[in-house]
Amino acid sequence: MSNANVQANLSNLARYQNNFLKEVEANVEEGHMVKMCMQCGVCAGSCPFGPDWEHSPQKIFMMIRAGKRDEVLGSDSMFMCTSCYNCIVRCPRQLPITHIMHGLANYAHRIGMAPKGQPTRQFATLFWNNLVKKGRVNELTLTLGHYFTNGLVSGIKTALGMQSIGLGLFMAKRLNPMEIFGGHGVKDLKGFHAIVAKAKEIEDRKKGFTA
Amino acid sequence: MAKKEYAFYPGCSSQLKASASNYLVSTNAMCKALDVKLTEIPDWNCCGASVGYCEGGELPRIAINARNFAQAETHLPGQDIVATCAACWLGARESKERLDGSAQLMKETNEALAAAGLHYSGGANVRHMVEVLIEDFGYDGLKQPMKKSLEGIKFAGYVGCQTNRPFGIVGESFENPLYLDKMVETFGGEALTAYDQKVTCCGGALAFSEPEKSQKQIRDIVESAYDAGAEMIVTPCPLCQANVEVYQSEINKKQGTKFNMPVLYYSQLMTIAYGGSAKDAGLNGQLIRAEKLEKIAGK
User: Fold this and answer.
1) pTM of this prediction?
2) I need a labelling partner for B116 at 20 to 30 A (CA). Which of A77, A189, B89, B261 fits?
3) Distance between CA atoms of B286 and B296, rounded to whole angstroms?
């Protein structure tokens, strides 16, 4: 955990005086909807990765109200969300569950409490940084970056295992090895970066990430 | 003048030599046959996709989508924004709805846009290409330019997640949307309405980070297509297409299955039905060749 993360974590902890529901309502995307949950469990039963969640969304909502801050923010559950939106369309109380899970994962990630080395946390970070670099996703560097996340040896093994797929995509003109030298991007990169930086600055200030 | 004009948001995966480049090739051919003029939003950027949430947060994701809206509003006034990618459509439409619903968010977003000298004033409708086809043309309208029938091919209509939820196509149900089946039937193909995995998640971006869990989903999606008697899967989503096609060989290797099921876009079917060549339809972009479609294209 970096120093800035530790600081943000501690200052938000102090600000909300262990009222975790309040903390979530103020800092998590769509967090104000958490208390609408009536514990029916439809979300838990609708999730394609349901059995892989340590705590289902239904449980997470109750844990937030019970003040289980460490257990929620330290869990890898929210990173199991595939963004399929099944839970959202089925929820009888119309909680934007997908967004709340994204918001909780983002909050846990930004204050340094999300599990280290969690694969979707790593991939999602890589994805955002990749798209911000040029304004558009570079599929080749994203894929290679992902394979090599856990070091050189593991990366080479994964890349070799996937090389027949890569070759197939190349032959079908759906993968361009030249993308390694840059690839697609927006022309007004300076403007794009300025927008992202400004938006981040506003959000960080609001959520106490710059504390 | 073209019959209809739209501000086009092709998205990252549709670009030249990217994973869904054949989606763009076939979309262009399909739109030509329908006399639709697509003008790319000048200098469009990535939508952030769903998986951008972790590092991107809320406002940066909305702001980058608003950059596209601002460009469309300024350079293509009055035109609806049309996305072909499910994630682009979702990311853009979600951002638009949040902005429409919150003056505070709109203010903050415009503060961010001002850093690049841009402004968004709330215009520009965000739609998916399938919505445009069904709502602006209708099944009868889509049939008009038809030159060849897809008769004799059995299709499993795999709608997937993000073209279906949370917005979907007006009038369709989330649990059993029928529009893809209707499109297949419009062009003479056989739609296997008993296909029971049509709205199952393929794992999305987690196909990268959680390959085993995702490949379990993909196995169900392909296996059920075989069970229903399908010869091909058809889908409106580029990530569904890539995941369901690309990982079949991996699943075969690991689990001893013998999957070899072509996975097509609706736009490829339509291009062939409109008399286009296999190349016009981007059929050379398939990892698993759609031989029956190629045969119709060659007739």
Assistant:
1) 0.95
2) B89
3) 16
